[in-house]
Amino acid sequence: MTEMIIPSKDGKSFTAYVAMPAVLPAPTIIMIQEIFGVNAEMRKKCDAMAAKGYIAVAPDLFWRLEPGVQLTDKTKEEWTKAFALYNAFDVETGIDDLRATAHTFRGHAESTGQVGCVGFCLGGKLAYMMSTHTNIDVSVSYYGAGIDAMLDEVKSIKTPLLMHLAEEDKFISKDAQAKIKEGLAGNPNVTLYSYPGVDHAFTRINGEHYDEAATKLAHQRTDDFLKHHLKQAKAA
User: Fold this and answer.
1) Fewest CB atoms within 10 Å of the CB: 43, 99, 131, 135?
2) 178 to each of 153, 167, 168, how far by Cα in Å?
3) List 60, 137, 169, 199, catalytic entry
4) Which position among 133, 200, 209, 219 bears the catalytic label?
């Protein structure tokens, strides 16, 4: 586990947490943060992904607002700051930084050149956008809010995208979920799973809405999806 400097599109740079697998070279998975920054939870997710055989990298996407943000979901003050950062965050610039991260790892000496992404919450929205804006090899989106307003971009999805939705998500209404399902239904590159009885951020360990069974199922589906599509791409 280490920290790496990533050059940005505009000639600056930002940091990323990187966890390396035991066997190299390996495909890279960009782990895209929630609104709490690259905190302990995101670093644990990176470590878990590295244990599965991937280079796992979590870029600091709030660096233009405040570098090194590490918040939790445990206090009102942290929630207030997290939402302030979220509201000030420019998603298009965030995509530029994720694209820069992908570019860096496509040419990394210990990478196979394959790059996928897995995002949660804010990161779930950005993972969807990576599938519509870039040539990322594979994307996984966990409960990304706001996707229902970007369904006109579905036709741009040319690589595999896996989406996880929580049916009782307080940030993604049932109306919005219905629109997402309908809007994505016609694209053969998209796989969508819906989880009954769980709320937003159901995979956040120790979070208010953590659900062990749904988390285990969603992560197994993600593991299978990444392994299938990245191995398939490698063999092609």
Assistant:
1) 135
2) 17, 10, 12
3) 169
4) 200
**Tens of pLDDT along the chain (236 residues)?**
689 999 999 999 999 999 999 999 999 999 999 999 999 999 999 999 999 999 999 999 999 999 999 999 999 999 999 999 999 999 999 999 999 999 999 999 999 999 999 999 999 999 999 999 999 999 999 999 999 999 999 999 999 999 999 999 999 999 999 999 999 999 999 999 999 999 999 999 888 999 999 999 999 999 999 999 996 444 33
**Residue 169 appears among annotated catalytic residues:** yes
Contact assessment for residue 196 and residue 100, using Cβ atoms and an 8 Å cutoff: no
Q: Are the CB atoms for 139 and 233 separated by under 8 Å?
A: no
CATH number at 204 reads 3.40.50.1820
Question: Looking at the DSSP assignment, which residues form a beta bridge with residue 70?
Answer: 37
Pairing state of beta strands 2-7 and 26-32?
unpaired
Q: How do strand 55-59 and strand 26-32 relate by DSSP bridges?
A: parallel
The model's pTM: 0.95
What's the domain count of the chain? 1
Give yes or no: 47 in active site.
no
